[in-house]
Design goal:
The protein has about 400 residues and is α/β, with parallel strands linked by helices. Among the domains are: about 200 residues, Rossmann fold; about 55 residues, no CATH class. Helix content is about 20%, strand content about 25%. An eight-stranded mixed β-sheet has the order 6-2-7-8-1-9-10-11, with helices on one face. Strands 16-15-14-21 form a four-stranded mixed β-sheet, with no helix packed on it. Strand 12 and strand 13 form a beta hairpin.
């Protein structure tokens, strides 16, 4: 079966194609595509201000990560992690075959494997007009056209993505069975009213399926119309700004003068972490003082007894003793605790804590792990000395007998 995904720029064509790829891979199929699928977590610098950062405990080969304060950060989950979260499927080697530009421009069928009747091979070609344009390729490759006619018998399904269906070569258009159109409701406006679509419609893509043979005919009605939810995790599975052909433009020229020409514009200073904590603490203290009961007593510093507001004296804790008790408790509080030692297939093992797992070669608090031991690891400090780091055990829960609760 041959299909075409058409629509305006940003309408959701490639997004829907990647969603179809993920669903097909999770069913056990093989996909050949020229879309740059990002397998591992990566950092999308183009949309860094819109995406939330999360820390990765180790550098990923072939991925674009952000390194700051001896830590690696990403803001896109990657295709492999999406399959695990969405379909509980572990990606197998060979399920995604990358198609190069020179392979598509030549004899594409020579680089495609034949599928089976139960599980055909899915081929997805983004920006198909770059290779199968109606103007530049008036005479399409005869061998390739023969391949399209016999693609169903070879158990190969093909999806071609283009902005306009009529821009494809006419001989190729004649082989297309279904044409899909896409419209992102998050960027579209309601007709007549010219207002944005309300929630939850704005978080969906409107899809319509048309017959390829009757495309453009008068009074043509879509075969099916449906709404597809925009799963934001799919945007972290591929590169939206990928170029399939080299485009020559003028480089090394400054094109962003935002905020430089406005003389009255004042730069907004953002609060750092300490200032935000102080602001939150002041709000909490103000609320406690505002909603404090009228008869509540204030314990003076160094006193042994105070009044509770009714004339009776009650025992009070000395301020110095209270400060010493708080300091002792804070020293015992740890951010990370040792949970267990897990042995993997290779026999090297890893340590599991409440914040994650660590293996040989990972970074932990700026230390490069050389060897995992039972409840810690060995690392080399700046002086070249071999040191041992031990995780604190997980605190035990204490059950009180007074109320039977857990403290």
């Amino acid at each position: 079966m041959i299909e075409a995904f058409v629509g305006l720029i940003g309408g959701g064509k490639t997004f829907s194609a990647v969603a179809r790829i993920a669903e097909y891979v999770a069913s056990g199929g093989v996909v050949c595509t020229n879309i740059e699928i990002m397998m591992e977590p990566w950092f999308n610098y183009r949309y860094a201000d819109k995406l939330k950062r999360f820390r990765v405990s180790y550098p990923v080969d072939g991925a674009n990560l952000h390194f700051e304060n001896n830590k690696f950060y990403a803001n896109a989950c990657g295709f492999r992690k999406y399959l695990l979260d969405r379909y509980q499927w572990e990606l197998k080697e060979g399920q995604i075959i990358d198609l190069k530009s020179e392979q598509i421009s030549g004899n594409l069928h020579e680089y495609l494997p034949a599928g089976t009747a139960d599980k055909p091979v899915l081929v997805v070609i983004d920006e198909a007009v770059d290779w199968f344009d109606s103007e530049d390729r008036a005479e399409a490759n005869r061998e390739f056209l023969t391949f399209l006619r016999y693609s169903r018998k070879l158990c190969i399904d093909i999806i071609m993505i283009a902005q306009e269906f009529t821009e494809l070569n006419k001989r190729i258009r004649n082989q297309v069975q279904w044409v899909w159109t896409f419209k992102d409701l998050g960027t579209e406006r309601i007709p007549v009213f010219r207002r944005r679509y309300p929630v939850p419609w704005r978080y969906n893509i409107a899809c319509a399926q048309w017959s390829g043979r009757r495309w453009g005919k008068d009074a043509e009605e879509p075969v099916r119309v449906e709404m597809r939810w925009k799963d934001q995790r799919i945007f972290g599975c591929y590169r939206t700004e990928e170029l399939f052909r080299e485009v020559k433009v003028l480089r090394d020229v400054k094109t962003d003068y935002s905020g430089e020409g406005n003389l009255n514009q004042r730069s907004k200073k953002k609060m750092n972490k300490f200032e935000r904590l102080m602001l939150a603490a002041s709000i909490v203290v103000s609320c406690c003082a505002l909603f404090r009961p009228a008869g509540a007593a204030v314990i003076p510093s160094g006193s042994s007894a105070v009044s509770d507001g009714s004339g009776k004296e009650v025992a009070a804790i000395d301020a110095k003793a209270l400060a010493a008790l708080i300091a002792e408790i804070e020293e015992k509080v740890e951010d990370e605790f040792y949970i267990s030692y897990v042995s993997d297939v290779s026999g090297k093992g890893c340590i599991k804590t409440n914040l994650g797992q660590y293996r040989n070669g990972d970074l932990h608090k700026g230390n490069y792990i050389l060897r995992i031991v039972e409840n810690g690891y060995m690392y080399m400090n700046e002086a070249g000395e071999l040191k041992y780091f031990k995780f604190h055990p997980q605190p035990r829960k204490i059950v009180t007998e007074d109320d039977g609760g857990i403290s």
